[in-house]
Task: structure prediction
Amino acid sequence: MNIAVFDYGAGNLHSLVKALEAPGRVVRLDTDLRTALQTDLLVLPGVGAFSSAAVRMADARDAARDALRRGLPCLGICLGMQLLFSESDEGPGCGLQFIDGRVTRLNAAQVPQIGWNTLEESRDPAFAGAALRTAYYANSYVCRPADPSCIVAWSTHESDRFAAAVRVGNTLGVQFHPEKSSAPGVAFIQQFLTAVTSD
Result:
């Protein structure tokens, strides 16, 4: 199984790559989104700013959206989840427009949200058997899908209840960082990869 991690050029991806690795898998970092699409699984990592990442993916935005619509498996983490949407209040730029909705600032006094938070109503197969009940967050912005039926897990920060995870087809987006969520977070990633491999 070939796994491509799209590198926006911001942040240390070591822990994510380590969480993705397993026998029979080849993980590579790609700084070009068009090249990253030539894979069995695309990972949009969770470090960086929406505007700069949107610029880095602009040339291949349509190709990436079409690939996801055709069923290319994708895991979007934190910023990677937000890039599945159209726009963000964080700054200018256009996401993949794969999921209808907008990314908005957390409606809370304490922003960013940094640390552990509870996952509520987790109903995606990737959560099955992973024992992931709490997850690690580092975010100021959250996704607000136009159609909430794509939301497969929730979290609440202060009084703001937001999408912790969304699923559309073979694309799973998570606002938390599974690679930083201890053993259950890594198990969650492995569960998703196993499901993708068996499809």
